[in-house]
Amino acid sequence: MAEPEVPPAGLRFGTDGIRGRAGTRIVDPVVRALGRSAADLLDSDRVFLGRDTRESGPGLSRALAEGFAAGGLEVVQMGVVPTPAVAHAAALEGAAAAMVTASHNPWWDNGVKLFSAGGLKLDDAQQAAIQAAWDALPELEGSPGLERWSDDPSTDAVHRWVDAVVGSVRPAALAGLAVVVDCANGATSAIAGPALERLGADVTVIHSEPDGRNINDACGSTQPAALQAAVTAIGADAGLAFDGDGDRVLAVGHDGTLVDGDDLLAVIGVDRHERGLLPGSTVVVT
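Request: output the structure for the sequence above.
Response:
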């Protein structure tokens, strides 16, 4: 995938954080300043931090952690994990969370998603307050002290999330089914296959060898043609395609037909209703 020329531009903090060209718009001083600006406004003294597989991820993660630490937050590094794993850890611990990712964008972009205490989306007031604080401190140079930094993951938090996902459906729910999973060379690359196998599926994994630059490249949920071809070629029962940070998924039927998010919500809603796990017998869509 060719790298385009994109000029520098102003950044605004939105509902899904910030995204932009890494090395040009998304650089260490900018991300460090965002961390420092957000540290006082996330309603927590701890923050779980993850990233996807982009080559700019390790450096930007450290810069963000430095900003958080400068604001007095304890940073729990999770390494390469899907965004839902970071939010889940925050929910269990009553902490804040952050993810260094540009989601389904190409490798040359990166960004930051923030979650308030409990792993919740920021409300409008928090979002506006973070933007105002960041406007007042758009860059933070240097490397504030960050003790015991490591890019190694907090594996306990990751395992708890995988256990929760596997435990959300019936035991051996996929027994006897052949499933192809497209990991988009992203954050689910080391996780999705083993999790599906725990549910009894015969799993074929594709696009699970990230090299820092192949994330979302002709693969994953935004470009599912390769998954469709693999499902029909193998004769699998179904396929799943994630995006780069693992918070978006599309499915494919045995004949290669796409099953989009609306269809998946219906399937999940019916399943949970049948098991008495759907409060109010209602699915809310935004």
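DSSP finds eight helices and eleven strands in the chain.
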